Amino acid sequence: VQLEEAGGGSVQAGTSLSLSCAASGSASSMNAMGWFREGRGRSRDLVATITNDGSVTNYGDSVKGRFTISRDNAKNTVTLQMNDLKPEDTAKYYCNAGSYYSGTYYSLAIWGQGTQVTVSS
Asked: CA–CA separation, 99 vs 18, rounded Å?
């Protein structure tokens, strides 16, 4: 599986940005995808996940109500719509392939190259 992110950039606080992730190939255990982010000096944290059929989504507490994850299976892409961006959202955002079982998302350690999002106040 290969993942390629697009989008990102530098924006002002309060504005919106959309990230997309195109997946090619497949893995037998892959039935979900997610977005993670890594700020400077911080660990890589979960932002949002979505199952392959789009029926289950989960969000990190800091982005609930502001970010929305969705997918287009015809295009094999996952989109992260980010609204009301804050300076603390500044990070490198990574697309991830994963497995979702029994209410838990498991990363398959398949990552895109990442895309930088910078939010200024």
From this structure: 24
Q: Where are the beta strands (DSSP E) in 29-66?
A: 32-38, 44-51, 57-59
d(CA 52, CA 63) in angstroms, rounded, equals 21
Task: For residues 113 and 121, give the distance between their C-alpha atoms in angstroms, rounded to a whole number.
Answer: 26
| Beta carbons within 8 Å of 86's beta carbon, 6+ residues apart | 13, 119
The amino acid sitting at 26 is: S
Exposure of 87 in the CB half-sphere (CA atoms within 13 A):
2
Residues of the chain with pLDDT > 90, as a percent, come to: 91
Report how far apart, in Å, the C-alpha atoms of 80 and of each of 29, 41, 65 are: 22, 23, 13
> Per the structure block, which two tokens stand in for 67?
């970010």
What is the SS3 assignment for 89?
helix
Q: Could you read off the pLDDT of 39-50 as tens digits, one per residue?
A: 988 899 999 999
Residue 54's CB is within 10 A of a number of other CB atoms, namely 13
